[in-house]
Specification:
It is built from ten helices and four strands; from the N terminus they run βαβαββαααααααα. With 224 residues, it is α+β, with helices and mostly antiparallel strands.
Length: 224
């Protein structure tokens, strides 16, 4: 089984299945397809277009097929590895976990647009400005608090770490990078996610990349 991903510094969608696989102890081969741009003539797009029509990451190659959507990857893993804890065991909890993941999959556009994932960088001053300037960003953060309120306790969203937590892990990195304001309960959950071994491994690899891509950096003109 192979997982195609983009640069760990920037690729939030790649982070989701990578962290999930690592957290659930499922063996896989990681294949990095470095970002060099997202137009058809760029090597990244050429490589991924040779694998599937959407030409995006993440993409999971398994059992002779390629799955090019993060939610589809999570559901495949749930069926292929039923004991791995991909989704919660209880039926209604599993439905709610999928609901949260689907909301992340299609929502929070202002958060994703204004606060691009950038591992290991302190953009707190930028985050303060963005939060003040963009109502949509404030609305997204308020929505996150409302969505999570029924599930925040001392553990993860549904007890053990599941796909729901993996889907929101890149959001937790954004909160850290941009210093976005959150409640104490959400801050505690964020700390648990960021300290998870799988997330820590992603961070370690991202920092080791030592990469600076100007097209992924709207707020910096050069690395520190």
């Amino acid at each position: 089984m192979k997982l195609y991903i983009g640069n760990k510094t920037y690729s939030s969608w790649s982070m989701r299945p990578w962290v999930l696989l690592r957290a659930c102890g499922i063996d896989f081969e990681e294949i990095l397809v470095p970002f060099d741009g997202f137009d058809a003539h760029h090597e990244f797009k050429k490589t991924m277009a040779g694998l599937h029509a959407s030409a995006t990451v993440p993409a999971l190659a398994a059992e002779g097929t390629l799955i090019g959507d993060s939610l589809a990857i999570a559901d495949y893993l749930y069926e292929a590895y039923p004991e791995a804890g991909i989704w919660p065991e209880e039926r209604l909890a599993r439905a709610k976990a999928r609901e949260l993941a689907a909301i992340m999959h299609s929502g929070f556009s202002d958060l994703r647009t204004h606060c691009l994932m950038n591992i290991g960088v302190d953009l707190t001053d930028v985050g303060k400005r963005l939060y003040a300037e963009h109502k949509g960003l404030r609305d997204d953060m308020a929505r996150l608090e409302t969505l999570f309120a029924p599930y925040l306790g001392e553990g993860y969203l549904f007890g053990d770490f599941t796909a729901a937590d993996a889907f929101y892990a890149p959001v937790m990195t954004r909160i850290q990078t941009y210093g976005l304001p959150v409640s104490k309960t959400l801050a505690a959950y964020q700390a648990r996610v960021l300290s998870h071994e799988a997330v820590q491994s992603w961070y370690k690899d991202a920092l080791a990349e030592d990469v600076f891509l100007d097209f992924e950096e709207p707020y910096r003109t050069a690395p520190k």
